[in-house]
Amino acid sequence: MKKFVYALAVCLAACLPTGCSDNDDPDPVPEGEKVTLTEAGTLYDVLGDRRMEIEAIVVDGSMDFLDLYTLLDASRNGSLVSIDLSGASLERNTIPSYAFCDYINGGGSWSDARMAGRSGDSPVLAPKFTRFVFPKALEKIGDHSFLYTRIENLEFPSTLLEIGDEAFAKCTNMKQDRLFFPEGLKKIGGAAFWDATLNDVVLPSTLKEIGAKAFDSAIAGNVYSLSPEPPVCLYDSAFDGCGNSTLYVPVGAKASYAAVKGWSGFAKIVEIKDFPRQR
Q1: Is 33 helix (H, G, I), strand (E, B) or coil?
Q2: Number of neighbouring beta carbons within 10 Å of residue 183
Q3: 198-207 pLDDT per residue, tens
Q4: How far apart are CA 195 and CA 171, in angstroms?
Q5: Of 278, 101, 135, 270, nearest in space to 202 by CA
Q6: Residue 127's closest CA among 87, 68, 85, 66?
Q7: How many helices (H) and strands (E) does the chain have?
Q8: Which tens digits make up the pLDDT trace of 10-63?
Q9: 115 to each of 122, 125, 172, 212, how far by Cα in Å?
């Protein structure tokens, strides 16, 4: 009997996973298939039929819109949930407009997307990826490029200059506590984060223009604006639906912000010396 119990215990131990602890990441990032492109527009051919089976991918080298569409298709119709383009080089250092907007790329019409947003429905064929790492040299994110996607966290590169209209609108799967926009960013387009799920937002001192309804109904936390002068808010509606948030501005800037209609709708405007910094 003792021999049987001992043998059973050995078998159970062999079947259990090893190396687990309370500190292990419960949802680790997949290692990813690594691909280096020597010519833009060739990702489809390089991956072949395997593209529908890959869960995570890391792409280096030159890429164009066709390569981005290959990733969209692999995520929408396949298993791709993690995309890392940190080492990739895009044309004009830009993620083009509609790059990952499923409604434009075969998932329906633009009017369909609008109606889905009004009814509260999610796009049926939205891509599955929740993780996206931007190219290190990225300068612009085009209009509607991530509209309705399931992306969870955003970490923008330091090279980013512009975010287009509705680039991240209706991204309701975002989970980070604080979103930092990089120093050097100059423009955030209209409805860029409309109805997304953001908490705290930290805007850089270099920001010059925020489009209409850029953060409409998107911010559950507070807004930190590092610019000593309030950036232009087109049509005074950039922060509609954010009236319960507190706006933090540099010391001596409160009067300037309070005098501008697009910035005056916050619950409070507070001057601070030390702003949150990205780790």
Answers
A1: strand
A2: 13
A3: 999 999 999 9
A4: 7
A5: 278
A6: 68
A7: 5, 16
A8: 343 334 343 333 333 445 556 789 999 999 999 999 999 999 999 999 999 999
A9: 10, 15, 16, 20
Task: Give the model confidence (pLDDT) of 62-82 as tens digits.
Answer: 999 999 999 999 999 999 999
> Residue 238 is encoded by which pair of tokens?
């950039």
Q: What are the tokens at 258?
A: 């309070």
pLDDT (0 to 100) of residue 32: 84
Place of tokens 């602890």: 21
Share of the chain above pLDDT 90, in %: 78
Q: How much is the pTM? A: 0.84
- Two structure tokens written together for 61: 């080298």
SS3 per-residue string spanning the chain? CHHHHHHHHHHHHHHCCCCCCCCCCCCCCCCCEEEEECCCCCHHHHHHHHHHCCCEEEEEEEECHHHHHHHHHHHHCCCCCEEECCCEEEHHHEECCCCCCCHHHHHCCHHHHHHHHHHCCCCCCCCCCCEEECCCCCCEECCCCCCCCCCCCCCCCCCCCEECCCCCCCCCCCCCCEEECCCCCCEECCCCCCCCCECEEEECCCCCEECCCCCCCCECCCEEECCCCCCEEHHHCCCCCCCCCEEEEECCCHHHHHCCHHHCCCCEEEEECCCCCCC
Sheet holding 246-250, edge to edge: 178-180, 200-203, 223-225, 246-250, 268-272
- 230, amino acid identity: P
Q: Considering only CA atoms, which of 148, 251, 130, 156 is closest in space to residue 194? A: 148
Q: In whole angstroms, what is the distance from residue 63 CA to residue 47 CA?
A: 14
Distance between CA atoms of residues 6 and 195, nearest Å: 59
Amino acid at 7: A
Q: What angle do CA 258, 263, 268 make, to 5 degrees?
A: 65
